[in-house]
């Protein structure tokens, strides 16, 4: 083994990590109308601004001579990048590997991203696309990750930095909490569902057959319960909503929000504003229209 061999080994692991769960798994992701974890990050962030953290975290299988035989990357991608020139921390579940469910490194990686955002006072964006925990993997490791979750500083984060949750696929168990524990959440219609447990758990538990949409789709949460703030037509729409929402806010509570130059004359008159609120206080009016006009 030489340093050249070691560097080549690291480069090979990086290349495998960028392949996510492989071509077939990526094709299935696209067939379901979903982007991959890396595609989501690429669309959100400014060009060439992503700095990945922990790309080599995963499960390696070595050959008899000590060389790398195979490598399965962790099923979450985290790092930093710019949104309109301002630094944010981003995490994206990788559904192409074990349906995004927790495995040996995933809980440590996503919690690292959360802690990093809080420590460096940067906004956090979560792309959630996970099938929840894996009993099989818990049995294999002989322990659960539950002792670590009380250290998750989501309450402190919510008081200090902007936090966004995007339901970009099934969000079961912890995934539902990651969407809900945010200042702004958006759910992709048709592919994003939020629930404590999916249909396969609900049916044997209470004897009711129900599909994912009826259990936790847009009609349930973005238009019903209010667990999710907005819904999006597709992932491109969701990402645009996230970028727009971030543009209104400071990076943290210790900074002022950004100031942009107004392209319209400041002394213009908007006659519709005069009548948008009825004189008769018993009548309703469209508050969103008022916001749009202002």
Give a topology summary.
Layout: H1 3-18, H2 23-31, H3 37-44, E1 51-53, E2 58-62, E3 68-73, E4 76-83, E5 86-93, H4 106-120, E6 124-130, H5 135-141, H6 154-158, E7 163-172, H7 174-180, E8 184-188, E9 193-195, H8 199-206, H9 212-216, H10 218-225, E10 230-232, H11 235-247, H12 272-276, H13 287-293
Parallel strand pairs: 5-6, 6-7, 7-8, 7-9, 8-10
Antiparallel strand pairs: 1-4, 2-3, 4-5
What does this protein look like?
Strand 4 and strand 5 (86-93) form a beta hairpin. The protein has 13 helices and 10 strands. The termini are far apart. With 294 residues, the chain is α/β, with parallel strands linked by helices. The strands form 2 sheets. Strands 1, 4, 5, 6, 7, 8, 9 and 10 form an 8-stranded mixed beta sheet that branches. Strands 2-3 form a two-stranded antiparallel ribbon. The model has no long low-confidence stretch (mean pLDDT 89). 38% of the residues lie in helices and 20% in strands. The relative contact order is 0.10.
């Amino acid at each position: 083994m030489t340093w050249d061999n070691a560097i080549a080994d690291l480069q090979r692991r990086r290349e495998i990590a960028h392949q996510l769960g492989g071509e077939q798994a990526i094709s299935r992701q696209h067939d379901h109308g979903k982007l991959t974890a890396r595609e989501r990050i690429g669309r959100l962030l400014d060009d060439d601004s992503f700095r990945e953290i922990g790309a080599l975290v995963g499960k390696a299988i070595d050959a008899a001579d000590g060389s790398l035989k195979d490598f399965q990357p962790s099923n979450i991608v985290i790092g930093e990048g710019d949104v309109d020139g301002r630094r944010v921390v981003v995490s994206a579940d990788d559904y192409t590997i074990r349906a995004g469910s927790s495995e040996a490194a995933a809980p440590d990686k996503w919690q690292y991203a959360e802690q990093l955002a809080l420590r460096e006072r940067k906004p956090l964006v979560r792309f959630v696309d996970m099938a929840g925990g894996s009993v099989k993997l818990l049995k294999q490791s002989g322990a659960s990750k539950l002792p670590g979750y009380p250290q998750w500083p989501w309450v402190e984060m919510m008081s200090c930095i902007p936090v966004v949750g995007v339901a970009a696929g099934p969000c079961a168990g912890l995934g539902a909490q990651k969407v809900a524990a945010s200042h702004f959440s958006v759910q992709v219609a048709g592919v994003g569902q939020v629930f404590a447990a999916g249909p396969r758990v609900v049916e044997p538990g209470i004897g009711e057959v129900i599909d994912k949409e009826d259990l936790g789709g847009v009609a349930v949460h973005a238009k019903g319960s209010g667990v999710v703030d907005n819904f999006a037509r597709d992932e491109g729409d969701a990402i645009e909503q996230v970028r727009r929402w971030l543009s209104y806010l400071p990076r943290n509570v210790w900074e002022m929000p950004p100031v942009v130059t107004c392209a319209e004359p400041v002394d213009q008159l908007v006659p519709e504003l005069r009548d948008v609120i009825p004189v008769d206080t018993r009548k309703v009016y469209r508050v969103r229209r008022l916001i749009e006009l202002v």
